[in-house]
Design goal:
Elements lengths: L1 E2 L10 H13 L9 H21 L6 E4 L2 H18 L4 E5 L4 H11 L4 E5 L9 H7 L4 E5 L13 H10 L3 E5 L18 E5 L10 E5 L14 H4 L7 H16 L1 H20 L4 E3 L10 E6 L4 H10 L2 E2 L6 E2 L2 E2 L3 H5 L4 H4 L2 E5 L6 H21 L1 H7 L8
Parallel strand pairs: 1-11, 3-4, 3-5, 5-6, 6-7
Antiparallel strand pairs: 2-8, 7-8, 9-10, 10-14, 12-13
Helix pairs in contact: 1-8, 2-8, 3-4, 9-13, 10-13
The structure holds pyridoxal-5'-phosphate.
Length: about 400
Amino acid sequence: MIYADHAATTKMSRAAMDAMRICMEQTWGNPSSLHDVGQNAALALWAARERVAACIGACPEEIYFTSGGTEADNWAILSAAYEGAKKGKRHIVSTAFEHHAVLECLQRLKGQGFEVELLDVCEKGTVSRQQVAAAIRKDTCLVTVMYANNEIGSILPVEQIGEVCREKKVVFHTDAVQAAGHLPVDVGTQHIDMLSLSAHKFHGPKGVGALYVRKGIAIQPLLAGGAQERGRRAGTENVPAIVSMAAALEEACAGMEAHTKKLLLLRDRLIAGLSAIPHSSLNGERSNRLPGNVSFCFEGVEGESLLLLLDDKGICASSGSACTSGSLEPSHVLLAIGRSPEVAHGSLRLTLDVENTQEEVDKICRAVSEAVERLRFMSPVWKDKVSGKKPFAL
Ligand SMILES: *Cc1c(COP(=O)(O)O)cnc(C)c1O
């Protein structure tokens, strides 16, 4: 089996599993309890907070633990919107290719009278500082732009966007779920006010994440209940998962340089191999992308069929297109970077990790090449293209 879907989730690392098990055995108390067992758990929780904070250049008091990336995104966006509304500011700037956790949350706010402006994304999969600057108005309460895209892996200029937001005194949130543990993050130099991360994208457990909130930025609780997380996030903390996340993030950050070096070789080998397939095209730029991300469109191919053929050969990948209620909608990300719906349907996302090998990459190249050929051979549309009846798009 070859697992090449690390943007969807990763396997927990040995260090993350060990940290979780030890915590469950030794510091299983409720951190809100005043007795010894509770206070030991409180100490473990605080130590995890310090470690997570250190990995992103924050203070421990600025870290709030959540149930994952989705909750962190929702919390940041809803809180900034409601705080803005108090001052009559109801305009939000974001991009057309954010994760659904951001886009659906913005959709909800639209229904509550907020005005949402989604910036166009260029073919390279990014938005510019100038675009953000031009979109900010007097009544803008939030700019939310992702650090790196989960489908095409493009990296956005968060530092420059953060700078503009700081100048214009607008809160800047970034969904860094794909970036944390994979790219350097420093909330100070990058002028980030709020940042979401999720443990299962960097070899930590699922169902746990964090929201960084800069000191001085007001944050409203979403849940009513106890006084956990300094009264901002009610509910008994998932201490074993949080401790495990801290171990995973620390490990990922410590190994980042070495991992990136190795991953770039694998990634670029895979890109070169797949580029040799006729009528194929890489999504996003060759260089400005996550070290493990490879995203392609193959003309005349149905992405879902391609996935099934690859699965048959023991290769786990993703199409990057979402199945919505029975109808196969092309990916909003690929449409946002200007792919036609027809071409967007033939997408394939392969996301690598240091555990992957050169041999696996070569196997993937052969398998994709064969599968694409087979699917095209069966396609009536493809016959029309080959015979010249219809033009090629790629
Ligand atoms: C995975 C992901 C999320 C959601 O995180 P969960 O922890 O799975 O809720 C949000 N944003 C991006 C960019 C992601 O890749």
